[in-house]
Amino acid sequence: MKDVLDELAAARRAMGTAALPAGDAYTMELRRRYDAPVEDVWNAITDPERLGRWLKPVTGDLRLGGSFQLDGGEHGEVLRCDPPRLLRVSWLFGPEADEWPGTSEVEVRLSPGLAGDTVFELVHAAAVGEPMFPTYGPGAGGVGWDLHLLALTRFLADGGILDHDEFPASPEGREFVRRSAAAWGEAHLAAGGDPDHVAAAVEATAAFYAPEPKAR
């Protein structure tokens, strides 16, 4: 379990603000390093075959102006693509989300480290007032990204694949989720979140991603 929790601690998390086409937004921000060159990390986040092995299977036209859809229902358009440094996409979930375009975007920035590694930054901006925030806070998306970046770590290291269904239900995965939710709670507090709201959101987020096993 130590290796998994070390990976969780390797990322810096923050909340911020942004402007989206639909209006004011809050951001979930992650920054960490990967022991791989920029070109390899870029390929892992843009090549459909490799992307599907650590994120989710993807279909569509992965080029500037093209649209995509993930197997889990997330979908959007490629808004900016500057290989191998910057990728920005709109990020919507579910058919109803299409009625409110411009409400969610994800941007990934890559830069070379001093030791041939890669500095990886992910910023997910979601419109203020989106329905998940009152209950889950930034952990609504933040815990999901922590899980996917753990999967990316394993994939870049040796091609290993993290089972996104089984891992959160395992003792190791439940602890990872609990600590991830708490870390996003700390970022929420640092951004000025109400302590009572933050505490409730952390608890709700952990229960959502890793619910208690049902008694037999």
Could you characterize the architecture of this molecule?
- It is a single chain.
- With 216 residues, the protein is of the alpha+beta class.
- It has a single domain (2-209), classed as START domain (Alpha-D-Glucose-1,6-Bisphosphate, Chain A, domain 4, 2-Layer Sandwich), CATH 3.30.530.
- It has helices at 2-9, 38-46, 48-54, 133-136, 139-158, 171-190, 195-209; strands at residues 12-20, 23-34, 58-60, 67-70, 74-82, 86-90, 92-93, 104-112, 118-127.
- Strands 1, 2, 3, 4, 5, 6, 7, 8 and 9 form a nine-stranded antiparallel sheet that branches.
- Strand 8 and strand 9 (118-127) form a beta hairpin.
- The model has no long low-confidence stretch (mean pLDDT 93).
What brief labels describe this structure?
9 strands, alpha+beta, Alpha-D-Glucose-1,6-Bisphosphate, Chain A, domain 4, 7 helices, ASHA1/2-like_C, Activator of HSP90 ATPase, 216 residues, 29% strand, 9-stranded antiparallel sheet
Helical/strand content category = alpha+beta
Fraction of residues in helices? 25-40%
Oligomer: single chain
Per the CATH scheme, the topology name is Alpha-D-Glucose-1,6-Bisphosphate, Chain A, domain 4
C-alpha geometry? globular
Count the E strands.
9
**Which class in CATH terms?**
Alpha Beta
Q: What fraction strand?
A: 25-35%
- Count the helices. How many? 7
Radius of gyration: 17 Å
From the 3D coordinates, which CATH architecture would you assign? 2-Layer Sandwich
End-to-end span in angstroms?
Answer: 26 Å
What's the rounded overall pLDDT mean? 93
Weakly predicted, low-confidence segments: none
Q: Order of helices and strands, N to C?
A: HEEHHEEEEEEEHHHH
Number of domains: 1
How would you name the CATH homologous superfamily?
START domain
Biggest sheet layout: 9 strands, antiparallel
Domain Activator of Hsp90 ATPase homologue 1/2-like C-terminal: 35-153
Pfam families: AHSA1
Organism: Lentzea cavernae
Family: Belongs to the AHA1 family.
